[in-house]
Amino acid sequence: MVQRLKNYVGGEWIDVEASAFHAVTNPATGEVIGETPLGGAGEVDAAARAAADAFPAWRERPVEDRVQFLFELKFLLEKHAEELAAIVTRENGKTLPEARGSVRRGIQMVEVATGAPSLLMGQSLEDIASGIDCESVRQPMGVFACIAPFNFPAMVPMWFFPFAVACGNTFICKPSEQVPFSQKLVWELIHEAGFPPGVLNLVNGGKETVNALLEHPTIKGISFVGSSPVAEHVYKTAAAHGKRVQALGGAKNFIVVMPDAEMDAALDAVAESAFGCAGERCLAASVVVPVGGCHDEVRQGLIERAKAIRIGDGAQDGVTMGPLISAGHKEKVVGYIETGVEEGAELVVDGREQGQGEGGFFVGPTLFDKVKPDMKVGSEEIFGPVLCMMPAEDLDEALDIAGKHPLANASSIFTTSGKNARRFRYEIDASMAGVNIGVAAPMSFFGFGGAKGSFFGDLKAHGREAFDFFTDRKVVISRW
Ligand code: NAD
After folding, report:
1. Ligand 1 test: best mutation among 203, 208, 225, 283, most atoms within 8 Å of CB?
2. What range defines the domain where residue 57 resides?
């Protein structure tokens, strides 16, 4: 049944009169399951007004009262976690265990945000000059908004809104038009949790909705997660309109495997990083750099692991890799595989042969060897299950390859040498670094975000930095 999505504004579900709609599909079957209205400035304005109206009373509620709504939401999310995971699988394609993991990570954001009474505290000092005292307090700023990508439909908006509202702000969320159903359920739970009308608003849409959010005069700050070209556009446009911005962009993640690594565990982790979630993770391994004499062992181990993956509908038991998000994205990933062959990389495992399932957007795990840094497959973000091998003589060369890439989201080393590990963590540009970890994903109580072309802004997502992003630090100096 094709369902038309609504917006949630001022505590009510609203029909959107849009002239265009995005067809939402189940990527495992190609079946159309929904229609996302592609509204624009009018819908954003209505949400911004509702959020601005709700702000004064929400801000005045004691923080201890505000977080009670988050405790209630956490309880409801736990109750509906399985239903939410099933929706993630249905609209995004990732397997049910992967979807459950992402829902868990999202719930953990709500848990950390309930610590606001402690985490929002400021600082004070008596007698900064004779008889003069000084204090710094964190104050909410008003209306914030987030713009989310397709790859973690339930989790990514939760990187932001629990922290924003715990701090006393009000909020507008724009999910990806490709995966609107997860946030539909989250907002139904928000409604059930009893948040006052206007505190949390949901606006569906595409790029016109995004641009209206970036330009709206009432909105104080924007949190964005998506590809680097859009992240840069969001950063520049929102900043030009006087807003705070944190814009998390795309990735090309390098994984260095040293010859002294515990090879079985290392290759399990590399294969899971590259092919888990069908490679549609901003922390996915894109390039594996086997150092010195371990090239053949790494290659053979990855071939075996790629071939052991079972592709299919992620809702079915035993399936270990689901489809890509859309027909268009499948075409793009297949195009990269063709380009890699034309560029002279050696195609060791060809995922095109494993594309299966009627109507679904499947591409199997793909492995290229002898990839050079200047090849398109070695340099551009593919965002699919395509892993490139780029052998290096030594750690110097491996660090040089990673250091020259303009993106720096995540990077990992596999080694049993403390000296190699220390040098890697000290020198690598990527600001999410793993040592013997395949997916270096900071949890809710740490900050999340990359460096160089993978991140635009300064304060990262969630963790303590969220309390900096979502507040103004006012300094009060007093003499009586
Ligand atoms: P995307 O950039 O295409 O879309 C992200 C959001 O921006 C969506 O809500 C979309 O509606 C909007 N958008 C798209 N094009 C736009 C435009 N021209 N102008 C204004 N708004 C626009 O990203 P995606 O394909 O949904 O997600 C995949 C990307 O997200 C990958 O590049 C991945 O690396 C990145 N990502 C990064 C992180 C991170 O933490 N750095 C996390 C998840 C995903």
Report:
1. 225
2. 3-249+454-479
